[in-house]
Every structure is written in C-alpha cells, then in structure tokens.
Amino acid sequence: MKAIITVDLGHGDSCKGSVVDYLTNKFNSKLVIRSGGAHQCSHRVKFGNKSHRFSLFGSGSFDGAETLLLDTVIIDPFSLFGENKVLSETLGQDCSHLVNIHEDCLITTPFHVAWNRITERKNKHGSCGAGVYATKQYSEMFTPLRAFHLKDKVATKQILRDIQKNIQNLVEKDVFDRYTAFLYEDRIGDLTETYFEFSNKYRILGHDSILGLVNSQETLIFEANQGILLDENFGFFPHVSGDCSTKMAEAFLNKIEFRGEITKLGLIRSYSTRHGAGPFPSFDPTVKNLREEANISNEWQGDFKVGKFDLTLSKYALQCQSVDQVVISCLDNDPFDEYLNFPNKLKVPSTLEDQIENTEYLKKLGVESYFKPFSSKRNTIDRALEISNLLNTSLAGFSFGPDRENRSIFIRSLD
C-alpha cells in the first residue's frame, strides 16, 4: 500500500482538484481522503466535456473513486446535497454512494453561517462566509452537532435549539441585519427532518468501518483543502482558516499505524494568488484579465488577486511542511517575468503571538527593491524547473492548462 499526500504551498488555488484527478487516474486509486477543510472548498476538475468544482466530494470522482471525509472535516449537509445534485447531472447517475463520512464530523448549520456572516461584516478577516470557522469556534464553547447525531431526531432537535439560542446570545444586538433576523426564525423542525434524510442517504461510519475501508486500498490519495499560508497554526493571523489540516493527513496515517510508502507532493502555481483579506506582498493590482473561470469575485472575499511568484513565502511554507517533490501548475497563464525574494524574518509559529508578529512583518514590508528577474521564459517547462531549483526541491510535475491532458506528473518513486 502507498499514500500520496497533496500539500498546497500557497494561499489556496494551487490546482488541488486537477492534480488529485490526475493522480487518481494515473494510479487507479479507488479512494480519495479529505483530512480537513469543509464545504467552502472549490477544486475545479475539467476532463473532456465534463467540469465540476469539488467541495466535499473528492476530486477523483470522475473516475469513480470514493471519498472519505475524516472526523477533522466540517460538513454542511445542504452543501453536500447540492453538490451531489450537480455532480450526478454531470455524470448521469446519482453519486451519493461515493461518499463516506466519519461519524464525528462537525455539522455546519444555517445558524453557524449567520453568525459567521455577521462577524465577517464587522471584522473583515477574509472569511468566505460559509460558517466553517464559526462551526469550529462554537464546538470549542458548547456541545456541537456531529454527523452521528443526525440519525437521532430527538438529539438533533435539542442540539439545534441549543445552537440557535447560544448563537443568539453571542450576536451583538445592534448588528441586526438579515442574518441576525434569521437566527430568530423557527426552522428547527424542518432542519431536523432534512438532516435525518441526509443521514439515510450518505454512509456515516465509525472508526472500525473506516479502518476497514482504508486497509482495503492499494493507493490512498489525500486531497489538501487549503493553502499552508491560511493554515490555522501557520498562517498570518487573523487572516487564517479555522482549520489546522496541513499535517492532518500524516496524523491520520500515524494513528492507524500505516506502514506503506508515503509521498508528499507540494502544489504551487508559477505565480501567486489570493482570495480575501490579508497580507499579499507580491500582489500586482494591474493584472485583472487572467483566465480564471473558477475564481470569481464574491460578496465576502471580494476580487480574486494575483501577483508575482513569492519565493520567500513559498520557502516559509516548506519550513512549515516539508514535501518530497513539487508540482507547478498554471504555467500557461503566468503573465510575469519576475519573482519576489524579500528577507525572510518569518518564524515557524509555536504561539499565536508568533503568528501575529509574522503578520505585522508582512504588513510593514516594503517589497519594491526585492523583485528579481527569472532567467527562464514564462509559460515554459524551463520556468517550472527554475522554480523548483529556487525552492531546492525536485520537480514531480507541471501543467499548462486545466484539463487532465494538460498536465504531466512523473513521480519516479511510485512509477
């Protein structure tokens, strides 16, 4: 048995979906594992005339691979219902049988979403407004709703009432917008029925069943859910995701005493990108017309931003999470001939204070004198090789477009 762990070395949007799709097909994997993240993910896969933005389904679904959502994944049942409908229409068959859910997964409710959006309107930290961080934050204060509860209508109804009441008490009364108003609507009965339907449609599994599923596989593909630069423990607070999933895949393999070969693939674009608020040293506001069909503006994060390749932040990401090889994507879309290499005074955080100190360093940083020219031409394999050399890592693959046939990944240790 072998395991391939994908690691996003940026702020996200490092082509996790298309890489996982390619790996699933290349190694004929039957299981894609999500060890973190939630329903806010949007991993685009394009193959022939099929296209889908994967959220809770794993990005190997086009080849029929099942998805395993570990207990560190947060789930909005409405999101999974909606994604299943769209994916089933794309593939011409119901796809709910592809999803396996750990019974301890936290459940995001509309009350968490409302709380998240009320808070984001005030703080503007860069949230996507999907209630993910609110769900985790709530679970640290009160009894949360988990997947196994959904099979019990009585338990579900009581926990939902508690969630509604507790969040009402957390919301400032002077911020009474449409989201606050929603917190006072009586939807407990409808939600309970919907969640019970969800528990009957999708497999909710205990630890032993999950262990049996994993041990029956030859190749495990772990799909990253966010970039290291947004990680709860390594990102630039407060502009982080409520998720410390960067090392969750390894933690799971250690927990089950995995003895097979493990390869960690770092995923990165040949230029930098960012959604939402937060420091972005290499940001170039003059670049607005890149082909980014999957990355559009939204109410909560604003415009999708791009910048020159940031060597310093990329090396910082590798300090936080080592990888064996890198896959460099979007070479066809790269408009830049320079990269950023500013003095690295960032420390791998061990405390919240370290994260705040890193954030302040980036916010005060003047980068104008730290841009350097690439020696290779953009939009070429030579550019991918140069970036991998700058990172002191070997190149596992590259891509020149969103389709499966546009990428080449050659993991020599696994071939």
Protein described:
- By secondary structure, the protein is an alpha/beta fold.
- It has helices at residues 16-26, 77-91, 110-123, 132-139, 153-170, 178-182, 188-201, 207-215, 248-255, 311-320, 352-364, 381-390, and strands at 2-8, 31-34, 43-47, 50-54, 66-69, 74-75, 99-102, 106-107, 203-205, 219-222, 261-269, 272-274, 305-307, 309-310, 325-329, 338-340, 371-373, 394-399, 407-409.
- The protein has a ten-stranded mixed sheet, sandwiched between helices.
- α3 (110-123) packs across α4.
TL;DR?
The protein has 415 residues and is of the alpha/beta class.
Give the topology.
Layout (H helix, E strand, L loop, with lengths): L1 E7 L7 H11 L4 E4 L8 E5 L2 E5 L11 E4 L4 E2 L1 H15 L7 E4 L3 E2 L2 H14 L8 H8 L13 H18 L7 H5 L5 H14 L1 E3 L1 H9 L3 E4 L25 H8 L5 E9 L2 E3 L30 E3 L1 E2 H10 L4 E5 L8 E3 L11 H13 L6 E3 L7 H10 L3 E6 L7 E3 L6
Parallel strand pairs: 1-10, 1-11, 2-5, 2-10, 5-7, 6-8, 7-9, 11-15, 14-16, 15-18
Antiparallel strand pairs: 3-4, 12-13, 16-17, 18-19
Helix pairs in contact: 3-4, 5-7
